[in-house]
Write a structure and sequence with these properties.
Layout: H1 2-10, E1 13-16, E2 21-24, H2 26-37, H3 39-57, H4 63-83, H5 92-116, E3 121-125, E4 132-136, H6 140-160, H7 163-190, H8 200-225, H9 228-233
Antiparallel strand pairs: 1-2, 3-4
Helix pairs in contact: 1-2, 1-3, 2-3, 2-4, 2-8, 3-4, 4-7, 5-6, 7-8
Length: 234
Amino acid sequence: MTALVCITTLVFQISIPQTQGFFNLGDSAVYISAILFGPIIGAFSGGVGSALADLILGYGVFAPITLVTKGAEGFVVGLISNSLIPPKKTNTRWTVFISLTGLVVGVIIILVGLLFYSTPWQIGIGFLASYQFFEINPIPIVWVVLGCVSAALIVVGGLRTSPEVAWLTFSILIGGSCMVIGYFVAEYWLLGFGTAAFVEIPFNIGQMTIGGIIAIPVSQSLKRALPFLIASQE
């Protein structure tokens, strides 16, 4: 699983010049490892596999940070998805749980958008010499609408989907948040990137989201196809 995390991280990257970091698909393998094998293997494969990829790609300055941050991400996802028991879907606690989750996510989107992403954006369009930049002024109400829509989708989706899928989504949301916050704190205070550290937040949220979209169906399919994986944990 450590090798899988490393290879998945290496196979596709988008460079982020402001922080010298990069967008990748490695989080999907971190989540799969954690969901299938629990917090210990999730932490080891997530931390070591991702740190090895940093070293191979020449991002050695990030390797110690990645070891801790991705390790924490794998541990939290493995712990919540395997060790904690979700409320029953028919229970009132489930409705409260889903509603609070949607509320928290919506508020975070609104606050982050209003505080850090309401300044003018530069959008690049074109190729090589014809590359042009256009400035767009985002309207603050956009973040309020986006936060409310996201909260509504989480609540409706959580109440309509199976508890298992909703619980895996919740575990990835919490574990992925450890990754997003961990990188931001390290880049802002330890590496001294200052406000540039904010640039990487949406990229890391994108990593978490895409990773979850890949990991949940893959891990569920593997559990059905390879039942010994479940037995090995028990």
